[in-house]
Each structure stands twice: as structure tokens, then as C-alpha cells.
Amino acid sequence: LSDSECRQGLEGDIEPFKGLLLRLFFVSVGASIDFGYGMQNLGLVSLLLLVLIVIKAGVLWGLPLTSKSSADQGSLLALALAQGGEFAFVLVSFCTQQGVLPEEVAKPLVANVALSMACASLLFLLHERVLAPRLFATQTVKVGADEIDETNPVIIAGFGRFGNVIGGFLHAQGVGTTVLEIDPDHVDLLRWIGLKVFYGDATRLDLLHAVGAAEAKLLIIAIKDEEKSLALIEACRKHFPILQVLACAYGRDPAYRLIQEGADSDTRRGLSGKKSSGLPVVNR
């Protein structure tokens, strides 16, 4: 049926049952776990759990080293996959039904896998709060703002989806833009695809002076953080009163708050040099 012309309809019909069957599987597995056996043999189960996690974590920790990955990534991979998998329940149950494994061996194995899966969140906490801060803190490097080597009539603060669209439109119209982005990973990605982006926090007054906010004609705020947007508007109103500001509001209430900042009573100059009153607010 998967090779027939009806496969698309069949996939759509079967899709709702996938989650149901998966839940049924875990319920049946949970019901088959003998918790009384685990409590009576807590020492054996704990020893098996420790052996499983240590062996799997040790093997997985060494794999990234062969691909020259960082130690931080290796530890995260090792602890994320150190627990047993769901297929172990199926395999142990099948072996028990076929007489390959006796019940005395299957019970501690099932309890061991179940406990290892329950410890997954604890292993993540171990990496985040113990290993990463202490063992890999020296690998974290603070990145300062870039040196600004150009000024343009338009400044874009934030280069997400909205800033990207506006920047592409202005570039197509031949309008020079200076882009500021605070996410270093996003800056690296944009530079990798050939875009000129400066890393830095647009709310810093020294950075605004560096990008030429005093001479620029328009500042486009495309930051999702509402508090940063309000702080940036306040700084522009105070230090760059003739700079026109176009702000992006992610919702109706943030749009009202941007307007209530008092920009409507202000008068600013547009790209053409003509005066325009108020703060343009784009509600997304």
C-alpha cells in the first residue's frame, strides 16, 4: 500500500493513531515493570544502572573526539544518550517470550532501562549546572561589540525576519543601511551568507554614536524585546531628536506602549528631508 497511489490518503488516515499507539506502548511497558522487585533488589538495580550509564557515556564521550568536536559538545552528547532506549523493552520482552532470557534476568534489565530513562533530566541538569560551568568555563569567550567602519542614512537594529525583509527592500532600492544584531550566532550565519552585519547592543549610546545615529535619517527597530525597544526609543528621543524611528511591535499591546512612549507628540525628519510627525509603528 505504501507504493500505491493511495499512500498519501493512507498516511493521513493513520497519522492520528501513531501517537495513540505510542502511548499505549509506554503504558503497557510501565505496567509490566515490577517495582516491588526493584525495591527489594535496590542494590543490584542501582549497580546495573551505574554500569549502563558509565559505559554508554564513556563510549559516547569519546566519539566526538574523533571528529574534533569540543569537549563541551561531547559531554552533552554523552549524558543525553546515556540512558537505555525504548527498544530495549521490546527486545527483552521478545527474548523472555522465546525463552532466551529467564524472568530473573529480564526483571532487573527492564527496571534498569526504566530508571535510566527517568534519570535523563537529572543528567541534563548535571551537565548544565556542574560540568559545563566548572570544566568548560574557560572555553566561553566574551565577545565585544564590533568596530563600526561605516555610516549610512538608515540603521536597522535587529535582523530577524522583519529586519531581513526591510533590509532587503532598502538594499534593492539602493539605500545604504547599517545593521546591528545582538545574537552572535545569528551574526555569524548572516556573515557566512555574505551579509555585512555588525555585532552589538543597539541600546548602547556609544554604539549609536559609532553607527552615525546623529547624522542618520531613519532608525528601524526590529527587536523582539519590548523593553529594549522602549529603551532605544527613549535614548533616540533624548540624544538624537531629529532621527526618525520606525518600530516593529509584536502585538497590539506592545504597539500601544510604543505609541504611549510619547513619540506622537514629537516631530522628526524622514528620508526625503521632509518633516513627519509621530513614530511609525508596524504591528506584526
What does this structure look like?
- The chain has 284 residues and is an alpha/beta fold.
- The protein contains twelve helices and eight strands.
- The strands form two sheets. Strands 3-2-1-4-5-8 form a six-stranded parallel β-sheet, with helices on both faces. The chain has a two-stranded antiparallel ribbon with strand order 6-7.
- α3 (42-66) runs antiparallel to α4 (71-80), α3 (42-66) crosses α6 and α4 (71-80) runs antiparallel to α7 (120-135).
- The longest helix has 26 residues, at 7-32.
- The radius of gyration is 29 Å and the shape is elongated.
- The two termini are 45 Å apart.
Question: What attributes does this structure have?
Answer:
284 residues; alpha/beta; 6-stranded parallel beta sheet; two-stranded antiparallel ribbon; 12 helices; 56% helix; 11% strand; elongated
Question: Quick summary of this structure?
Answer:
The chain is of the alpha/beta class and about 280 residues long. The chain has helices at about 5-30, 35-40, 40-65, 70-80, 85-95, 105-120, 120-135, 160-170, 185-190, 205-210, 225-240, 250-260, and strands at about 155, 175-180, 200, 220, 245-250, 265-270, 275, 280-284.
